[in-house]
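User: Round two. Same drill as before: sequence, then structure, for each protein.

Assistant: Same drill it is. First protein:
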Amino acid sequence: MQTPNVIASDLDGTLLGPDHQLTERTRKALVAAREHGFAIVAVTARTPYGVANLPGLMELVDTAICANGAIFCQPEGGDIRILRSIPLPVARKVSETLTELLPGAAFAVETGTGIVGEGPYQELVNSPNWDFADSLEGVFDRAERVVKIKLYHPERTGDDMAAAVAGADLSELDMCHWGDFGMLDFNAPGVNKATGLEIWCTEHGYGPEDVVAFGDMPNDAPMLSWAGRSYAVGDAHPETLAAATDRAKSNAEDGVAQVIEGLIEAARSVA
């Protein structure tokens, strides 16, 4: 198999350590990879500001693909490009359906520049980029744009929530979940980590055969299936394991860094 040109990685649970920061080994591996000509792409469910706030990351990536593939964020200047959003009437209709299927769940809407969420999210987040409303209607009243719908339930798993909405009319929105953690994300139809990464690669002259990708959760599975080579890290979700071509050590063991170090050695051997 050819040496890849693009390293694409999920962040939390994958590239970042258990403390959600870059470890020194991973930082050194990314620096070395860039020196050897690899393009580095972060592909994450995080918002652009959630990525920008990670110390030392943006200076090491060529771009950050955020919101599960819906937003491109450039390292220099932090400029964002929204690929596709959800029409507000569609978002309202889908949210009404989800409210019936998952009573007790709390909603949030990512706008591209911030997030508006219902009250229960205040227990999860501490960020100046969040705004809170007392009701779902209040959330939509404050959201000028809907890039992604987030749905959180403190007493259910993501797997269970996904099963509960299976078969419902959700206007073909692209859905992903987090396994044991009780959250669902909804993007516009056809927007996911794979399509976002494919768009970026096409714009820069790369194909799937040029990409090695890393992930751990179901939202990473489309990207891992698309990439020519892919690694499920650590105790990845079964959907992620099924999508990947290979396995890597966990983020606690710098699994991505270990693979990158091997790629650099392979690149040196053919130089």
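Second protein:
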Amino acid sequence: MAYLVLIGTRKGLFTATSDDRVHWSVDGPAKLDDDGFTAVAEIFAIAADPATGRVLVGASTFFGPSIWRSDDAAATWSEPENAPMAFPQDLPYRPLDYSDTAGIDQPDAEQTNTVKKIWQLAFGPGRRVWAGVEPTSLWTSDDGGQTFEFNQALWDHPEHTTWASGGAGPAVHTIVPDPGDPATLTIAMSSGGIYQTHDDGKTWNGITKGITVDYGPDPEPESGHCIHKVTRDAAGTLFAQSHGPAYRATRPDGGWTDISANLPTNFGFAMVAHPTQPGTVMAWPVGESMDRTPPGHRISAWRTTDGGDTWEPWGTGLPEEPYFGTVMRDGACTDYAADPGWYFGTRCGDVWASDDTGQWHLVAAHLPDVLCVRAMETP
């Protein structure tokens, strides 16, 4: 077997291949189309399906955001003839209300209904694809990503006016399918919270009970939380990294439990669950000061095997000297192999890989700022 890592950066898509997760061959930036604009595009979203070899990439180019597709594990690419998504023309502009959200400036009303960035792509059953978009919205495709339908129910949610802009912009940035129930989907947004549907997006319920904030007037608001990432383990338990503590929820409607006691900080972005071992999750803590660097300026991965009751630094082989690269919310992943591999990239442009024994190996160094990483096992 071989392994493919797809690396989205500020300046294009890079790929890395290996037969052993130790020795890597790196290529890129990839030209997803003939005009070459995508070779320097910002790549915020990648979805990879090991079962089929399908890959989707959301890129923001000179001409705006679009989605490129590969059916052969990133060997060749195609783009829809027309823009894959656009807000309905009769959708009223909705300037958001930021009056209760720590004083963040409100975007211009005329820009609210313009698709700015594609922040998340996720495969569902059949030809289903979900897309999380800025401004805060969810889109669904049933033709493999050629065309997308706007989810009106989420947009019309009565709490929408409390959804603010995180540091990177107001967006649905996390999509977590339920493998056992195609009608159930969990999404997270910054800054909006965590929402869940059990009827394929017809209705949405906020599920942030128990998540507290220290950046607003209400320490336990019903909505408007700045959530950085959500992941789902093999037993269906959800884990969340907020703009503050990390949390666990076995029944999200029953509330979340703070699991940050043994982590070095109460702050971070990326969080990835083990594909087969319930309760096993990886996190990459970030210092709570505004410099947003690893605690003590030492890059490290932290792992729990008991659902977050305890954590410990995991793995060897990472730099021991001062290191200032942060792992962003989509900058880490697993390849979902039977013997799973773990991957993460940093804002210093380095990418690392490990098998489940915890020995880290450098995949690539000195790339542009790494925004997202996806990996899969290939034949």
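Confidence is low (pLDDT under 50) at residues 97-111.

User: Perfect.
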